[in-house]
Amino acid sequence: KAGVTQTPRYLIKTRGQQVTLSCSPISGHRSVSWYQQTPGQGLQFLFEYFSETQRNKGNFPGRFSGRQFSNSRSEMNVSTLELGDSALYLCASSPMGQASTDTQYFGPGTRLTVL
Amino acid sequence: GQQLNQSPQSMFIQEGEDVSMNCTSSSIFNTWLWYKQEPGEGPVLLIALYKAGELTSNGRLTAQFGITRKDSFLNISASIPSDVGIYFCAGYVHQGAQKLVFGQGTRLTINP
């Protein structure tokens, strides 16, 4: 089985722009979660999608949004980019999104740099 | 919010040595996971622990879920150069919630 794939792998944007990142989960996985990783804050949960619905959300401003398509692929969008949004954005998928039984498998991430 | 305190933050060891790192929390976690991350890659799952007191091995790696559900440790025996990376503990706070909380990571460096 192919693993979680994320595109693009690297992205450079300027302040004020918006960006869309894409994630394709492992085949058959229906839950997709997004995380932000920075040297200062570490790995932080952004949101989780299951069956095209946002099921859990972390403590990020409304500039961060996402969606999931019927084939479980997911996108996240960041509008009005700030310098502090520079980070590695990781996507993780799991079969049903059940914490007691499922395990999340991570993609390689998208490295976003905001200038 | 829930936090996982991971220690040590970094380790510098000789090849062949054993490694031990741990994670503690003031909150109860229902599941503990240990991940390894290498440069330019996402975290890769090493061991998953689902029951308090559970001890699980994966090759040279051994991890235990503390009885109180507030701590976990990871041991690596006879370290080799490919063990280099950042090790993260992570846990789910609530049943059914796929929100992972991560520790700060332990950076492992091995001198050959």
Overview of this structure, please?
The complex is a heterodimer of chains A (115) and B (112). Chain A is mostly beta strands and 115 residues long. Helices cover 0% and strands 52% of the residues of chain A. Chain A starts with a strand and ends with a strand. With 112 residues, chain B is an all-beta fold. In chain B, strands 2, 4, 5, 9, 10 and 11 form a six-stranded mixed β-sheet that branches. A five-stranded antiparallel β-sheet of chain B has the order 1-3-8-7-6, with no helix packed on it. Classes of the chains: A mainly beta (115), B mainly beta (112). At the A-B interface, strand 4, strand 5, strand 9 and strand 10 of A face strand 4, strand 5, strand 9 and strand 10 of B.
Please outline the helices and strands.
The complex is a heterodimer of chains A (115) and B (112).
Chain A: E1 5-7, E2 10-13, E3 19-24, E4 31-38, E5 42-50, E6 53-57, E7 64-68, E8 74-78, E9 87-94, E10 105-106, E11 110-114
Parallel strand pairs in A: 2-11
Antiparallel strand pairs in A: 1-3, 3-8, 4-5, 4-9, 5-6, 7-8, 9-10, 9-11
Chain B: E1 5-7, E2 10-14, E3 19-24, E4 31-37, E5 44-49, E6 55-58, E7 61-65, E8 71-76, E9 85-92, E10 100-102, E11 106-111
Parallel strand pairs in B: 2-11
Antiparallel strand pairs in B: 1-3, 3-8, 4-5, 4-9, 6-7, 7-8, 9-10, 9-11
Briefly characterize the structure.
With 115 residues, chain A is mainly β. Chain A has no helices and 11 strands.
Rg estimate of chain A, integer Å: 13 Å
Number of strands of chain A: 11
Could you give the order of the helices and strands of chain B?
EEEEEEEEEEE
Strand content of chain B: over 45%
- What is the percentage of strand-forming residues of chain A? over 45%
Order of helices and strands of chain A: EEEEEEEEEEE
Write down the Rg of chain B. 13 Å
The overall pLDDT of chain A, averaged over residues, is: 93
- Number of helix segments of chain A? 0
Q: Which structural class fits the helix and strand makeup of chain B?
A: mainly beta
Q: Structural class of the secondary structure composition of chain A?
A: mainly beta
**Shape, principal axes of CA atoms of chain B:** globular
Largest sheet of chain A: 7 strands, mixed
Number of helical elements of chain B: 0
Biggest β-sheet strands, sense, barrel of chain B: 6 strands, mixed
Number of strands of chain B: 11
Q: Uncertain segments of chain A of ≥5 residues (pLDDT<50)?
A: none
Distance between the termini of chain B: 40 Å
In terms of quaternary structure, the protein is heterodimer
